[in-house]
Specification:
CATH topology of the largest domain: Rossmann fold
Shape: globular
Order of helices and strands: EEEEEEEHHEHEHEEHEHEHHHHHE
Strand content: 15-25%
Number of helices: 11
Largest sheet: 8 strands, mixed
CATH class of the largest domain: Alpha Beta
CATH superfamily of the largest domain: Vaccinia Virus protein VP39
Radius of gyration: 21 Å
CATH architecture of the largest domain: 3-Layer(aba) Sandwich
Strand order of the largest sheet: 1-10-9-8-11-12-14-13
Bound molecules: S-adenosylmethionine
Number of strands: 14
Length: about 325
């Protein structure tokens, strides 16, 4: 692997605003034990994304990134885990939050167990907060990471202490001369465009290299329900067939990861919903006109959020009906 600077953006576009390098923002956040929460306040905005006062702007953050960052805060604080993926619940492991970290660790162990012998260099695509890259380096692999999220990259850099170069870019935009023995997508494949990413993986692999994907896909069923995300499985199989890969492993682990959704559902209904209702009641009591206006202005958005998160539909049963969670290993065929 080439000797990259430890932490760098791959292109200006990946920095969120193309002026950013010329006017570094002052960061101000709630420092929760090393986790620097998201809000960047610019005193002299150069390319404001959303102006909230003449002297303040808030950087626009992708909603999926917000979800991941909330997951990271809750995981770190409540569940003692830096992982940002589902848990693997074998029979006998009780589905309760006390076992969350264990289930996530089982998931990582399953991936590690499926890394073929002889692999030395790994590109961890969508490295989250770096927890899995850390495990890999502890097992002696040379790892480079990719993430488009600057905030997650900062977390990963703290955790990895500079052991792994981090490319702050989308995988689709990654530019590198390095080649890898294995490219890993641990729950990050659903975020990348398949059309660009599969040929790119082919180009970035050493001869005989491997592609390992552990993620969920959409089944061919009518309605996605409250559960979004994932490429269509049939479409994925068609796309991968167009590439010079041969399948080594294709494990269906949907039933073992699905209980994760029951815990998420419990959390949303028992913690998220009462907090939401309390906040709404507070605003309605204090600022009735503002509340009515906001309720009217954002009625569609609020309805969507309610249907998605607070109707009890994000559970294991729905997950099994709509998704197929798979661990798939492919080997590059000789040219
Ligand atoms: C659910 S997290 C998985 C994190 C980690 N791999 C794990 O297993 O814990 C998804 C990750 O994919 C990253 N991601 C999203 N879009 C991406 C893209 N286009 N290219 C590379 N990574 C992406 C996110 O920033 C995040 O780090």
């Amino acid at each position: 692997m080439s000797n990259f600077p430890r932490f760098f953006p791959s292109s200006r576009a990946d920095l969120g605003t193309d002026r950013w390098p010329f006017s570094p923002p002052r960061s101000k956040g709630y420092n929760t034990d090393g986790f620097n929460v998201v809000i960047r306040v610019r005193l002299a905005p150069v390319a404001p994304l959303k102006r909230i006062s003449p002297i303040m702007t808030i950087e626009r953050i992708d909603s999926r990134e917000v979800g991941l960052l909330i997951g990271l805060i809750l995981g770190k604080r409540l569940l003692k885990s830096d992982d940002l993926h589902y848990g693997y619940w074998p029979p006998g492991l009780k589905v309760e939050s006390a076992n969350w970290a264990q289930a996530q660790s089982n998931h990582s162990d399953l991936i590690v167990a499926n890394i073929p012998g002889g692999v030395k260099t790994i590109l961890d695509v969508g490295c989250g907060a770096g927890a899995f890259a850390k495990k890999l380096t502890e097992r002696g692999y040379q790892v480079e990471c990719v993430t488009p999220s600057r905030l997650l990259a900062q977390e990963a850099q703290k955790l990895l202490g500079g052991q792994c170069p981090i490319h702050v870019t989308k995988f689709e935009h990654l530019e590198t001369d390095s080649r890898y023995d294995l490219i890993l997508f641990s729950e990050s494949f659903q975020y990348v465009g398949m059309g660009k990413s599969l040929p790119k993986a082919v180009r970035l692999l050493n001869p005989g290299g491997h592609l390992l994907i552990c993620d969920f896909f959409k089944k061919d069923v009518e309605d996605d329900g409250a559960l979004g995300g994932g490429h269509r499985l049939e479409k994925f199989y068609r796309r991968i067939d167009e590439q010079p890969f041969e399948s080594v492993t294709d494990l269906d682990i949907t039933n073992e990861v699905a209980p994760t959704m029951d815990l998420v559902n419990d959390f949303l209904l028992q913690v998220g919903l009462p907090i939401r209702d309390l906040v709404f009641a507070f605003i309605a009591g204090r600022y009735p006109y503002l509340f009515r206006f906001l309720n009217w202005k954002y009625r569609e958005k609020l309805k969507q959020v309610d249907e998605k998160y607070f109707q009890g539909q994000r559970n294991a049963e729905a997950f099994i009906r709509h998704k197929s969670y798979r661990l798939m290993l492919y080997r590059l065929r000789p040219a």
